[in-house]
Amino acid sequence: MRPQARLQAAIEILDQVIEAAAHQGAAADTLVQRYFQTRRYAGSKDRAAVRELVYGAIRFTAERPYSGRAALIGWLESEAPDQLALFDGSAHAPSPVEPFETRARAVLAPLWLEPAMRARFGEGFEAEARALAARAPLDLRVAPGADMDEVAAELGAVPVPGLPRALRLAEPRPLERHPLFEAGAVEVQDAGSQHVVAFAAARAGETVIDLCAGAGGKTLGLAADMCGEGRLIASDTDRTRLQAMGPRLMRARCDAVVEPRLLNPGREREALADLEGAADLVLVDAPCSGTGTWRRNPELRWRLTADRLARLTHVQARLIDLGAWLLKPGGRLVYAVCSVLAEEGADQAQAAAARLGFALSGSRALTPLSDGCDGFFVARLDKPGETWLS
Q1: Global pTM?
Q2: Which among 212, 254, 338, 373 is annotated as catalytic?
Q3: What is the CATH number of domain 109-136+191-390?
Q4: Is the dihedral of CA 213, 215, 218, 222 positive or negative?
Q5: Is 175 exposed, middle or buried (0-12, 13-18, 19+ CB in 10 A)?
Q6: Which of 70, 76, 87, 343 could staple 66 via S-S, CB 3.0–4.6 A?
Q7: Per-residue confidence at 319, pLDDT binned at 50, 70, 90?
């Protein structure tokens, strides 16, 4: 592809991403893949170059742009103005840039959300917002049976401070066919998620419920901390994600320990009735805005609305109450969201403690700027009764 054609391809993909963001359609990664599935003439260098253009424009502005062309022109004017000469109207090239046509402008957070984020971060807002829009490294969790030093040397990775089994690669790379991955020695998992698992502190012999397990990333960490002893139930309402857990459990050799359980949305208690009041630990890794994962999914900034955020906070409160129902007296509920917003984090945890009569015994807020990982909030709520010995 000529450089001009790469620009036009990026514009076409960005138009699709903008449309999908407005109507909760497919993710940007999926749209990029689909675009090139029907354009076999594009080589690997073409695909990489177009992807760079697409994600450069997405990261440039947190406000959903008017069009893919406006997004790309705005970013190029700011970062690579020489490329604007390639908008020359030749074959497969974008038409020339007009002086007064619409351009996207650099915005650090959706304008409707900026006041809440400024209240959350104060004078650090701009630095935190830039960190949320930066590229993320690739983090790994090393299985307990694998040698950290050997794995680090093999992959060219470095330890992540504060996490005994975490390694980091400066540049993402495919690992799905690497022998270490296939053998279950490593699992891709952001350091933020690993901090949540460490905060939960699951123990051998306990009954543990991962209430919103998804594809099982945190489930694997909980299983490792339980050393194969006890009972670990991994539940979710998403059949596809829950089924994706199976190969991961087998690769990590903990498929005999974990009990996947599919829930019916809105009727979760029916499928969990046998566990009422039985759990020592319930992890509620609740659906959320994903504001803490913007560096991995920057187009999420174009998708979030005030109405969607309100619906999510309602779901979070309901799931916390469900988790509380599953706890035995003296049990602990660990609430986590990959969000940097107070209304999904500290405010939600404090409201739950007051509503349920639980003790809010600890919390932690993580951000890319301060902790080098995805943004998370995690809190522990203790149910009245026998004291859990730490």
Answers
A1: 0.93
A2: 338
A3: 3.40.50.150
A4: positive
A5: middle
A6: 70
A7: very high
Which sign does the torsion angle of CA 177, 183, 189, 191 carry?
Answer: negative
Among the listed residues 126, 54, 81, the one whose alpha carbon sits nearest the alpha carbon of residue 298: 54
**Domain covering 137-189: architecture:** 2-Layer Sandwich (3.30)
User: CB 90: neighbour CB atoms within 10 A?
Assistant: 12
pLDDT-derived band at 169 (thresholds 50, 70, 90) equals very high
Q: How many CB atoms lie within 10 A of CB 346?
A: 16
Give the residue from 18, 139, 6 showing the smallest Cα distance to 80: 6
Place of tokens 């949320």: 132
What's the one-letter identity of residue 199? F
Sequential DSSP letters for 73-139: HHHHHHH-GGGGGG----TTSPPPPPTTS-----BSS-TTTHHHHHHHHGGGHHHHHHHHHSPP-EE
Positions of E strands within 255-346? 258-262, 279-285, 327-337
Confidence of residue 177 (pLDDT cuts 50, 70, 90): confident
In the prediction, which pLDDT does 306 show? 96
Rounded CA-CA distance 194/201 in Å is 11
Q: Is 227 in the active site? A: no
Name the nearest CA neighbour of 228 among 249, 200, 211.
249
Tell me how far apart the terminal alpha carbons of the chain are, to the nearest angstrom: 61
∠ at Cα 197 (361, 364), nearest 5°?
40
CA distance 266 to 268: 6
Average the pLDDT over 151-162 and give the result.
94
CA dist., res. 292 & res. 96, Å (int): 37
Taking residues 358-374, report their average pLDDT.
Answer: 96
Which amino acid is present at 372?
G
Six token digits for residue 226:
């339980």
